[in-house]
Amino acid sequence: MKFILALSFLLMSTVAFSYEKEFVIASILNDDVIKVERLDPNIEIAPGDILLIYSHVTKSILGYARVQVTDLDPDFFTATVQTHNKSGLIRPENYLKKVDLTKTKNDEFPARFDLIYRENRKAAAKYKPLVYTGLAQGFTASNLMKKEWLAGPSILGYGITNSWQVNTNLISTMFKIFNVSIKTTIFNNDDWELAVENGFQYYNEKTKGSYQFTGYFDSVSNSNFNSYVKLRVFTQKPQDEYLYNSEEYLNNLNLELTLSYGYLFTNWNRLLFGPKIDVNKKKVGGVVGYYIIDKEFHTMIGVSSNDFSEFKIGKQGYLFNLDFWWRF
Hints:
The protein has 328 residues and is mostly beta strands. The protein has helices spanning 2-20, 170-174; strands at 23-28, 33-38, 50-54, 61-73, 76-84, 95-99, 149-151, 155-159, 164-169, 177-188, 192-203, 208-220, 225-234, 254-264, 270-278, 283-293, 297-305, 318-327. It has two domains: 20-99, Beta Barrel (Thrombin, subunit H), CATH 2.40.10; 125-327, monomeric porin ompg (Porin), CATH 2.40.160.40. The protein is built from two helices and 18 strands. The strands form two sheets. A twelve-stranded antiparallel barrel has the order 7-8-9-10-11-12-13-14-15-16-17-18. The protein has a six-stranded antiparallel β-barrel with strand order 1-2-5-4-3-6.
């Protein structure tokens, strides 16, 4: 009986191991392009398909490759390496497995910031960088992709290109603050990202306009931690009934600095927390939020404050935050 159980376990292990080895890197053609050999001819492959790259030594995931040319030979095709962990070297004999990033049930690979995917609009939002973090926190340096939408009770955004997006804050509009902004990516790579946003507001009841410039800088600290820096410069604005930063500002230029840290959980959900400094009002507040992310739908639950020293509930003290939106 023990022999039968041991044999069954061995066969199951062999099947599982051979299933993982769907493809193998035959050679490195240049810095980004690899030649791949089929190990399982029954698996269909087409240009644009995504493959996970595994180390044949440690069995850890090194990154993604995207199928490029499939008509080289029945047994070979080329693929472009799109992202990889810099601590692991991609080389011949590494094996690959086809993965569908449009689905959220991919338990075979871990949640890591170096596996965040930016190259396909149809990929599930769970595996993409955060673009919007809710009403209290606003945007990050990451942009929507071309023809991608962001929509919820507080926000409406559209990706004009992969580097340009247009947005409007719907909650502000409810408070009769008509607004529009254009956000632009300046530079991005696997480690950090820089973007700027130009925003315009018109306070209908006060018949006064205001301009704001926001600079964003996101950086990856390690596999599960990253940071978000946001510097906002805005002109004079009247007092309003908006939930956040609703006081009157008389200076020609006013500064607000936000520093946030992000943690990536094993289920690809996120936690963001950090302070927000109002330089002109000499106030320190902040926000903490937990993000549940599915294929398109985001839910944010958290607490924010415009001033930590105000121990009361309300827009001048502490507010409970519940926000949700779709990215599609």
